[in-house]
Amino acid sequence: MTQGKWFLNVTTREGRVLRQLTEAVGAKRVVEIGTSSGYSTIWLALGVRATEGKVFTHEIDPAKVEMARANFETAGVDDLITIIEGDAHETIKQHKEPIDVLFLDAEKKGYVDYLDKLLPLIRPGGLILGHDMHRPMPDPRYIEAITTNPDLDTSFLMMESFGISMTGKKR
Predict the structure, then answer these.
(1) Least CB-packed of 42, 99, 124, 161 within 10 Å?
(2) Cα separation of 21 and 81, whole Å?
(3) How many other CB atoms are found less than 10 A from the CB of residue 59?
(4) Residues 63, 83: contact at Cβ < 8 Å?
(5) 31: exposed, middle or buried (Cβ count in 10 Å: 0-12, 13-18, 19+)
(6) In the beta sheet, which residues pair with residue 130?
(7) pLDDT by residue for the chain (171 residues), tens digit each?
(8) Which of 89, 18, 99 lies closest to 53, judged by CA?
(9) Euclidean distance between the first and final Cα of the chain, in Å?
């Protein structure tokens, strides 16, 4: 932790589920949109540590990038994470390889754009995880996109808390 600051983007319980799902699908390549302090990123990195994978995380705020970088080093997972700085609506265009797990935890109105741009890269059997599906209120367009596409299969987890959408890309 840097200067005693910690932004808890996901609960510890949600972080554990992120790690378990990442490990369970054998993720080699995880993309996260919205690093913040890096708490969720650390959980994802713990998942890819077991699969010999990597996490690519996108963050627009330079102060949060600096904080996250220090937190990754403290947690001993900095070698598993690549931080991509800038507006993720633009920086995600650099991804060309198949993605095993996509974790969305940035501005809620942007989820549809991220999904549109990255869905072609999600491998069959891969997961799209969206945070804050209960509160704050998710974008209804995103909910429609992940629940009406016949190539996707969506469930909602931990809705008593912030909520996570778990969307599998059908094989």
Answers:
(1) 124
(2) 17
(3) 28
(4) no
(5) buried
(6) 104, 165
(7) 344 455 658 999 999 999 999 999 999 999 999 999 999 999 999 999 999 999 999 999 999 999 999 999 999 999 999 999 999 999 999 999 999 999 999 999 999 999 999 999 999 999 999 999 987 788 999 999 999 999 999 999 999 989 999 999 999
(8) 99
(9) 40
